[in-house]
Automatic annotation (TrEMBL), chain A:
EC number(s) given by UniProt: 2.3.1.-
Domain Lipoyl-binding: 42-118
Chain intervals with Low complexity compositional bias: 133-150
Superkingdom in the source lineage: Eukaryota
Protein name per UniProt: Dihydrolipoamide acetyltransferase component of pyruvate dehydrogenase complex
CC terms in the record's Gene Ontology section: mitochondrion; pyruvate dehydrogenase complex
Pfam family for this entry, one: E3_binding
One GO molecular-function entry: acyltransferase activity
Lineage: Eukaryota, Metazoa, Ecdysozoa, Arthropoda, Crustacea
Family: Belongs to the 2-oxoacid dehydrogenase family.
Family matches, as InterPro entries: 2-oxoA_DH_lipoyl-BS, 2-oxoacid_DH_actylTfrase, Biotin_lipoyl, CAT-like_dom_sf, E2/Pdx1, E3-bd_dom_sf, PSBD, Single_hybrid_motif
Keywords: Acyltransferase, Lipoyl, Transferase, Transit peptide
Location of the Peripheral subunit-binding (PSBD) domain: 159-196
TrEMBL record, chain B:
Presence of the UniProt keyword Oxidoreductase in the record: yes
Catalytic activity line of the entry: N(6)-[(R)-lipoyl]-L-lysyl-[protein] + pyruvate + H(+) = N(6)-[(R)-S(8)-acetyldihydrolipoyl]-L-lysyl-[protein] + CO2
EC numbers for this chain: 1.2.4.1
Pfam families: E1_dh
Record's protein name: Pyruvate dehydrogenase E1 component subunit alpha
Function of the protein: The pyruvate dehydrogenase complex catalyzes the overall conversion of pyruvate to acetyl-CoA and CO(2).
N-terminal signal peptide: none
Alphabetically ordered keywords of this record: Oxidoreductase, Pyruvate, Thiamine pyrophosphate, Transit peptide
Gene Ontology molecular-function annotations: pyruvate dehydrogenase (acetyl-transferring) activity
Cofactor(s) it depends on: thiamine diphosphate
Domain Dehydrogenase E1 component: 70-362
Alphabetized InterPro entries for the sequence: DH_E1 (IPR001017), PDH_E1_Alpha_Subunit (IPR050642), Pyrv_DH_E1_asu_subgrp-y (IPR017597), THDP-binding (IPR029061)
Record organism: Penaeus vannamei (Whiteleg shrimp)
Length: 480, 401
């Protein structure tokens, strides 16, 4: 099933790519033919790489129009990279003559010509579009001298890249076994893949689980259960309907990042699970009491507070990886999973352990609202210490969620269900499942945390007691 | 937050606007342009010095053309580097010098052949004024054979005769610079050494060790703090207990210089050459400047300062713009000449970029070439001890005594 879906996804990407290429060609052609006799050549502006991992980007907004004068240092457009929206500026001086890639064109490859500047003093309306130049021409390596080849002896230095090495290791192959197909006898990844396919080889079993992929905090931790989106906005744009009647849905860069991060997390981290069941009547009563007093807080806000207090009582659960190093966080920065039209995102309530319940409620409202409008700043959704994903309001009684590295725990909260207790009276029960990283958190720690949390949820007045020990008292402590 | 530093310099810029006009223009004329002009320098601030550098300086037509060309070339090279980086043709570290051009051009304008320079990682402009060709710089950035270190060094590791390179460890170049000054003294070659470091580096302990030994031995060393307002994302006010960097040498005399005026920089360095070569020992300079780009390519440069702040500097204090106005109003050059230079600069950089993108990379065995100036063992370990390389000498050794 998973494989099927992956295949489907790949196919979709392939199609997206194709339709885009043809669209660009069309665009170029149109520009070339519709232009009157051309004179001065324009200066090309290309899709920049604005993060080390960015391969493509989407122009969210052009900040200048065709015909606008451009000064060095001016902001030209906002670009959605694989991580955030970043403003592109230029060092050139001139006039923005032609915008070649309009707003909202998805996933434009780095290096693609996106606009043309007319040099100062030239007529920007008749500017020539520079011929499509290749970006970052790949380097050719000087030929290895025969002397060196003799000294080094063929594959001596491993005449192949890291991806080839990895494949060789995974399949227990020696480089000599695989006939090289690259220039100068270099072994390419394609050669190895071909060899593996021909021989129908299987990867060797993996002995040790590598430590979780760390530093970049995931953009979103999604619950495994499909998140029913409330008040669904416009459906994602469809690319086309194929012959078999299936609709191709455009895969956004955010969705792709989510897919990548979640797969990395689920396959790279030793997920372990623990579920608690508690009676939530007192919690509901507390909320009602607040409401009667004009204080508007949700059950979710109360749960955030309860979990924060439980974490301060059980600080080993509030830990994050820093590289290979496990560290106990000094405060609880609670990531809250929020469904947005483009996917799930986890804004952070910082220092939730020493915030009052009203403060938590108002921060959550603000963060969630801005998350839906895609207006969160980077530090508002990166760097939490623990995550809560609550599908209770959708009537989901129980589910489990994927850990959001470098964090070590995520709590999946279900809805309250009315049951009959041993005395025959109705009680509301609630289930919450903790997914924890077994590499960083022991089972007994997780159990202690769940027990603590259960106590607090069933006796919410205990939230008022203690739990403030994380407040740092030394003014420099935050810098250490 | 617009730091106090910026505000004070901007105000100063306005106050001195009048000083832009030539003080006096010599009467020797040649096809409509003067051959030499005299300009007022921006007021200097002094620490433990009696006499300031001259309040006027002369500039010949040739110098004007050279300084303008050099500053434009650096600005253009840095823009090209920025673009190449965003195309992923340059990888890794890359720190740009745009906005600070007047410093290296002004200093170089006053140095003599025997004087030497060492700087930090923001070194492309310095490599250029110290003699590296534009092509060798751009190709080094993209890691190709025509690079001045055959593509093995990259952005932070460029060297030339009497230029001891970019150095990646913040502040570490300064004690080395003191050592070069000691060599000058020892070899009695009458040369001075200039070590440049940033406002961030200015708080490093090793600098004070270098000041101490330099003063103790009266070395011909000039320590220059390029105060561009920020060390990475931290403004000077947030990083330094005293932001008067020219006084930070305590017992070492110091001068504050407006680093946006190439002629004021040059005049002050002439003063330093005189000071150091007459045996008076070291000086600590602070050169006020600004960096237009982010700290490095991973910093968009707009999260700790506003776009308005950057644009204000570009529009009121830009070193190239100021110099252009000065030499035009002194009739040293014509607008057409400058336009022609702009075109030539653009062409030279474009051609260098083309080479930097298409040139070859070195062969793998060459990784072990030119590691030592005098190899005692010619076998060099590879990624494992079992695949050694052989040391070779391919490049000419520079700066060996
Ligand atoms: C010893 C050391 N510490 C930290 C760094 C990381 N680092 C690189 S540049 C830099 C900031 C330096 O700022 P400044 O001296 O003002 O120079 P500028 O970048 O402004 O030219 C830092 C902290 C380093 N390279 N070396
Ligand atoms: Mg600085």
């Amino acid at each position: 099933m998973a494989a099927l879906r992956a295949g489907f996804l790949a196919q979709n990407l392939y199609r997206t790519h194709f339709s885009k290429v043809s669209r660009f060609n069309y665009l170029y052609a149109a520009l070339f033919h519709s232009s009157p006799p051309l004179n001065a050549e324009g200066m090309p502006l290309k899709m920049p790489s604005l993060s080390p991992t960015m391969m493509e980007g989407t122009i969210v907004k052009w900040l200048k129009k065709e015909g606008d004068p451009i000064q060095p240092g001016d902001a030209l457009c906002d670009i959605q990279t694989d991580k955030a929206v970043v403003t592109m500026d230029t060092e050139e001086e001139g006039i923005l003559a032609k915008i070649l890639v309009p707003e909202d064109t998805k996933d434009v490859k780095v290096g693609t010509l996106i606009a043309v500047l007319a040099p100062e003093g030239e007529d920007w309306k008749t500017i020539e579009i520079p011929a499509g130049e290749e970006s970052a021409a790949s380097a050719t390596t000087a030929e290895d001298t025969p002397a060196a080849a003799a000294a080094g002896g063929g594959h001596a230095h491993g005449n192949y890249g890291p991806s080839v090495r990895l494949l060789l290791e995974q399949y227990g192959l020696a480089a000599e076994q695989v006939p090289p197909g690259g220039p100068h006898g270099i072994l390419l990844k394609g050669d190895v893949l071909k060899y593996i396919k021909e021989k129908s080889l299987q990867p060797l079993p993996v002995s040790a689980v590598p430590p979780p992929e760390v530093p970049k905090p995931a953009v979103a931790a999604a619950p495994v259960a499909p998140a029913p989106t409330p008040a669904v906005p416009a459906p994602p744009p469809t690319i086309g309907v194929s012959e078999d009647g299936y609709e191709d849905i455009e895969v956004t860069s955010m969705r792709r990042t989510i897919a990548k991060r979640l797969t990395q997390s689920k396959s790279g981290i030793a997920h372990s699970y623990g579920t608690l069941e508690c009676q939530s009547d007192k919690l509901l009563a507390l909320r009602k009491q607040y409401k009667n007093e004009g204080i508007n807080v949700s059950v979710n806000d109360l749960i955030i507070k309860a979990v924060s207090v439980a974490l301060t009582k059980c600080p080993e659960m509030n830990c994050v990886w820093q590289g290979d190093q496990l560290t106990y966080a000094s405060q609880v920065d609670m990531s809250i999973a929020v469904a947005t039209p483009t996917g799930l995102i986890t804004p952070i309530v910082r220092g939730a352990d020493f915030l009052g319940i009203e403060e938590i409620a108002s921060q959550v409202r603000d963060l969630a609202a801005r998350a839906r409008e895609n207006k969160l700043k980077l530090d508002e959704f990166q760097g939490g210490t623990f995550t809560i994903s609550n599908l209770g309001m959708f009537g989901i009684s129980e589910f489990s969620a994927i850990i959001n590295p470098p964090q070590c725990g995520i709590l999946a909260v279900g809805s309250g269900i009315v049951k009959i207790d041993e005395n025959g009276s109705p009680v509301t029960c609630m289930r919450a499942t903790l997914s924890y990283d077994r590499a960083g958190v022991d089972d007994d720690t997780a159990a202690a945390f769940l027990e603590e949390l259960k106590n607090i949820l069933e006796n919410p007045v205990t939230m008022m007691v203690g739990g403030y020990k994380s407040q740092v008292d030394h003014p420099l402590a935050a810098l250490l | 937050m617009l730091s106090k530093f910026i505000r004070s310099v901007v105000q100063q810029g306005h106050a001195n606007q009048r000083a832009l006009a030539p003080f006096m223009t010599s009467s020797v004329r040649n096809s409509g342009t003067a051959t030499e002009a005299t300009f007022e320098t921006r007021p200097y601030k002094l620490h433990k010095l009696e006499t300031p550098p001259n309040s006027t300086t002369s500039c010949t037509r040739d110098e004007a053309l050279t300084f303008y060309t050099q500053m434009q070339m650096i600005r253009r090279m840095e823009s090209a580097a920025s673009n190449l980086y965003k195309e992923k043709a340059i990888r890794g570290f890359c720190h740009l010098y745009s906005g600070q051009e007047a410093i290296c051009v002004g200093i170089k304008g006053a140095l003599r052949a025997q004087d030497s320079v060492i700087t930090a990682y923001r070194d492309h402009g310095w490599a250029y004024v110290m003699g590296c060709s534009v092509t060798s710089i751009m190709a080094e950035l993209t890691g190709r054979t025509q690079g001045m270190a055959r593509g093995k060094g990259g952005s932070m590791h460029m060297y030339a005769k009497n230029f001891y390179g970019g150095n990646g460890i913040v502040g570490a170049q300064v004690p080395v610079g003191a050592g070069i000054a000691l060599a000058n003294k020892y070899l009695e070659n009458n040369g001075i050494n200039v070590s440049l470091y940033g406002d961030g580096a200015a708080n490093q302990g090793q600098l004070f060790e270098a000041y101490n030994i330099a003063k103790l031995m009266n070395l011909p060393a000039v320590f220059i703090c390029e105060n561009n307002g920020y060390g990475m994302g931290t403004s000077v006010d947030r990083a330094s207990a005293s932001t008067n960097y020219y006084t930070r040498g305590d017992y070492v005399p110091g001068i504050w210089i407006d680093g946006m005026d190439v002629l004021s920089v040059k005049e002050a360095i002439s003063y330093c050459v005189e000071h150091c070569t007459s045996g008076k020992g070291p000086l600590v300079l602070e050169v006020a400047t600004y960096r237009y780009h982010g700290h490095s390519m991973s910093d968009p440069g707009t999260s700790y300062r506003t776009r308005d702040e950057i644009q204000e500097v570009r529009q009121t204090r830009d070193p190239i713009m100021l110099f252009k106005e000065r030499i035009l109003s002194a009739d040293l050059v014509t607008a057409e000449e400058l336009k022609k230079i702009d075109g030539e600069v653009r062409k030279e950089v474009d051609e260098a970029v083309k080479i930097a993108k298409t040139d070859k990379e070195i062969a793998v065995q060459e990784l072990a070439a030119d590691v030592y100036s005098n190899p005692l063992e010619i076998t060099i370990r590879g990624t494992t001890p079992y695949d050694p390389y052989t040391h070779q000498r391919l490049s000419k050794i520079i700066n060996q005594h």
